[in-house]
Design goal:
Blueprint: H1 4-9, H2 12-38, H3 43-61, H4 68-92, H5 99-107, H6 112-131, H7 133-140, H8 147-175, H9 195-213, H10 221-233, H11 236-246, H12 250-256
Helix pairs in contact: 2-3, 2-6, 3-4, 3-6, 3-7, 4-7, 4-8, 7-9, 8-9, 9-10
Length: 268
């Protein structure tokens, strides 16, 4: 017997996935070329969300008849992708290469320029294609909307508000020179040390609920991978390793504030 996950992909859906993978890989190669000219691979952060959103073009194009769920998913992923890309581009404009990527560059010399094609851009493009499987399930579905779709939309809205509001609060805080080396512990940052990552977490579990409503439980690999990236690979784990050294006040913040999921402040 072929596992359900494989049966779901060994269909026209698999053709959609392959086209999406080709699109994001092409996108990655173009961005890699730009990074060589700029000598800055940090630009991959700005295109990450657009690579994920771009997969929806393939899914939409190869779906014979797109139902309302598909249009909703398409609209939501592009709202998320464009907002995040614009914000990160604006935030990083004119800055030198991010310290995380400087470390990767240092550890992969010589010939990092060539290696970055697959260890930075290619890897992120492939990860984007896996994360996008919830989108594939939602767009390709022919089933009617149900209560899980409503729950998914609600979770997406909560996540989008958390992500966009916390990004705005952080940019306002960082724009004030009096806050240099200080810790933001107001607004949403009062309830979790990483409200923007929590917002992204909610968004992708929201997309999965659309997929689940379409009877595509196998798409759970999408939010699981995004959760791993946010919590263990390139999100919370990386920041928590370095920020304490840069901002001494962060130790007290850690003792009083939840790491990821929002909650009331802890008593000293």
């Amino acid at each position: 017997m072929v596992p359900v996950f494989l049966r779901a992909l060994i269909t026209p859906m698999f053709d959609s996935y392959l086209l999406a993978l080709a699109i994001v890989m092409s996108f990655a190669v173009l961005a890699w070329g730009v990074s060589l000219r700029l000598r800055d691979v940090s630009i991959v952060d700005s295109i990450w969300s657009l690579m994920i959103a771009a997969t929806s073009i393939a899914y939409f194009a190869l779906t014979p008849q797109v139902e309302p769920r598909g249009y909703i998913v398409l609209f939501l992923v592009w709202i998320w992708g464009i907002r995040l890309s614009v914000y990160l581009t604006w935030r990083n404009w004119g800055l030198e290469e991010d310290s995380r990527y400087k470390e990767i560059r240092k550890n992969n010399e010589p010939n990092f320029e060539v290696k970055s094609l697959y260890i930075i851009f290619g890897l992120q493009a492939f990860a984007a294609s896996i994360v996008s499987l919830s989108l594939l399930a939602g767009i390709a579905s022919r089933s009617a909307l149900g209560w899980l779709d409503l729950l998914g939309l609600l979770l997406w809205v909560i996540g989008f508000l958390f992500e966009s509001i916390s990004d705005h609060q952080l940019s306002q805080f960082q724009s004030d020179t009096n806050n240099k080396n200080q810790v933001l512990d107001k607004g949403l940052w009062k309830y979790t040390r990483h409200p923007n990552y929590f917002g992204d977490f909610c968004i992708w579990w929201g997309f999965y609920l659309f997929a689940l409503s379409a009877e595509s439980w196998w798409a759970i690999i999408s939010p699981l991978l995004m959760s791993f990236l946010l919590l263990r690979f390139s999100g919370v784990a990386v920041l928590e390793k370095t920020i304490k050294a840069r901002r001494p006040a962060y130790v007290e913040y850690v003792n009083s504030t939840n790491t990821f999921f929002p909650g009331p402040r802890k008593k000293p």
